[in-house]
Amino acid sequence: MPVMGKVQVQPTVAAIATLSILLSISSIQSLTGIGVNYGTIANNLPPPQTVAQFLSQSTTITHVKLFDSDPAILHAFAHSPIAVTVSVPNHLIPILTNLTSAHNWVRQSLLPHALTTNIVRVLLGNEVLSTSNKSLISSLVPSMQNLHIALSASSLAHRVQVSTPHSLGILSASDPPSTGRFREGYDEAVLKPLLSFLRATGAPFMVNAYPFFGFTEDTLDFALFRPNFGARDRFTGLAYANMLDAQLDAVYSALGGLGFGDVEIVIAETGWPSVGEPWQVGVDVDNAAEYNRNLIQHVTSGVGTPLMPNRTFETYVFALFNEDLKPGPVSERNFGLFRADLTPAYDVGLLRTSQSMMPRMSVPLNPMEEMQWCVARADVGLDALQANIDYVCGLSLNCLPIQAGGECFFPNDVRAHAGSRWMQVFVKVGLEVSEMIN
């Protein structure tokens, strides 16, 4: 970690000053914890502001993936510790092959929220390679490259990644996992350039992995992480105790087959419905609860998979709510973890208990490290000072303690909040920072 000296910056460039602190400490970091997909195809959902407050204060959910860039939702997550991923709908992908259009999209969709909302990733479409739409597929990588250029021009590329989610349908082989390969035609023409882009920018390969869509009555226990006879890869001899590990390792093998085994894998979607058609096997509240509870324990355990041991996976559960207006089978409308009144549809351990209500911080403090405190300069205006607090809280720090109801809220004064110990998370031994950067 480089040593940072004192910095004198004018209040009019508060955002740049704060960014200099964050950039000196780290570049884009992998997210930890559990995320959720926040879909809104429903007519009974609570207001976005209520959702953002609920997730921040009442759950251990640390990141949210949106299927668009709804400004009302992005505004609702302002000053929240939640890391937000936004999406570009499939139909806009060809438009973004024009660089000016990419600049305009960033300017209109991201910049109004960049100082206050912790936007960490932009996803181009959803399962584009599985659409068989030649225009979308050929436009995907150029649009991703243009968005990255536009983000760089807006000084956002250091904190906002660009990627795209894939279905498992892009695999031509997956059983056993070591034989995982991408579909011929897509591998060289699309996936190699795409993976080269992800590697160059440090972005992950994102996959929608659903054991729910791959199980049979005989493999239900295997899909739900229950005790079972498992499966053994006849080529590697590795044993698999659950279907998700087999799916992820098939993707890992496919990446390795193209020479990109070092690109991180993120689970963009996975889940289990609680209601389905009367004839569907394995679809009920108990199985949904069991899958998601076991999923969360597994991907955060550090066990990893047989081919990717000793690691955790950034994972987005599908979904935050049931969506009663979605088309298709009954199960499509019943993947929600929470009801519209924010009570849990079933318990998977994501609600914060009274013993775990202490605020979370994205950067853990070592109690053995000496902390150096910041004091706001007397000549700094309150608006500029509040802007810095908002920016830091939106990017990297859980600032619930200095919000209403928090233990450091009183005195309810901007200068008092700026001097709160909760604002000192980045100030460690070796950092000679004695002023509130503004």
From TrEMBL:
It comes from the Eukaryota. It comes from Acorus gramineus (Dwarf sweet flag). GO terms for molecular function: glucan endo-1,3-beta-D-glucosidase activity. Pfam families: Glyco_hydro_17 (PF00332), X8 (PF07983). This is glucan endo-1,3-beta-D-glucosidase. It is an enzyme of class 3 (hydrolase). Its EC number is 3.2.1.39. GO terms for biological process: carbohydrate metabolic process; defense response. Transmembrane segments: none annotated. SUPFAM superfamilies: (Trans)glycosidases.
